[in-house]
């Protein structure tokens, strides 16, 4: 969510790949003054100058029950990469994401809300083709609210 307006900025799609979880930007809500096809110009790794749509912001998270840790999260506004941990609420509706430097004590939490499964219909066809090939209406741990969200139970269509 945009901290000033409270409007959504992006939706995220979480995927399991080789035992690790990542969160990619699945939909952008551009403001009139935003560039038409924004890129991660401030990134300093392999994501440099890559389009934001489809960009993995959360990487290398390992699951232990309702907790995901050991990964990192990218701030595309400045290219900084932070250590990260995430916790899914018992009902799977809220994902608390904590990005931090050094130790988790020196970080910040954000709460992201899960979207209804039907929201997948609103994703860009490029995202569906790239991350969900062959699925018409998947059940996925899609999150939004300008942030992201994670499901404790990744569906088989996401593997």
Key features of this structure:
159 residues, disordered C terminus
Characterization of the model:
This protein is mostly beta strands and 159 residues long. Helices cover 4% and strands 39% of the residues. The chain contains 1 helix and 8 strands, in the order E-E-E-E-E-E-E-H-E. An 8-stranded antiparallel beta barrel has the order 1-2-3-4-5-6-7-8. A hairpin with a 5-residue loop joins strand 5 (80-88) and strand 6 (94-100). The longest helix is centred in the last third of the chain and has 7 residues, at 125-131. It starts with 9 loop residues before the first strand and ends in a 15-residue tail after the last strand. Mean pLDDT is 84; it is low at 136-159.
Which structural class best describes the helix and strand composition? mainly beta
Shape: globular
Q: Tell me the strand percentage band.
A: 35-45%
Specify the oligomeric state.
single chain
The Rg value, from CA coordinates, equals 15 Å
User: N-to-C terminal Cα separation, in Å?
Assistant: 28 Å
Low-pLDDT stretches are 136-159
Percent helix among the residues? under 10%
SSE pattern: EEEEEEEHE
DSSP summary: helix tally: 1
Biggest sheet, in brief?
Answer: 8 strands, antiparallel, barrel
Side-by-side strand order of the widest sheet? 1-2-3-4-5-6-7-8
Number of strands: 8
Mean pLDDT: 84
């Amino acid at each position: 969510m945009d901290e000033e307006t409270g409007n959504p900025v992006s939706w995220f799609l979480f995927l399991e790949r080789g035992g690790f979880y990542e969160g990619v930007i699945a939909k952008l809500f551009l403001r009139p003054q935003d560039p038409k096809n924004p890129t991660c110009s401030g990134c300093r790794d392999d994501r440099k100058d890559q389009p934001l749509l489809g960009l993995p912001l959360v990487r290398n998270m390992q699951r232990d029950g309702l907790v995901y840790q050991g990964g990192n999260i990218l701030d595309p506004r400045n290219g900084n990469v932070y250590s990260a941990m995430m916790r899914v609420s018992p009902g799977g509706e809220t994902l608390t994401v904590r990005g931090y430097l050094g130790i988790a004590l020196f970080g910040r939490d954000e709460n992201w809300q899960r979207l209804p499964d039907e929201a997948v219909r609103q994703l860009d066809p490029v995202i569906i083709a790239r991350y969900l090939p062959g699925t018409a209406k998947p059940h996925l741990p899609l999150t939004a609210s300008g942030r992201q969200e994670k499901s404790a139970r990744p569906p088989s269509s996401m593997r």
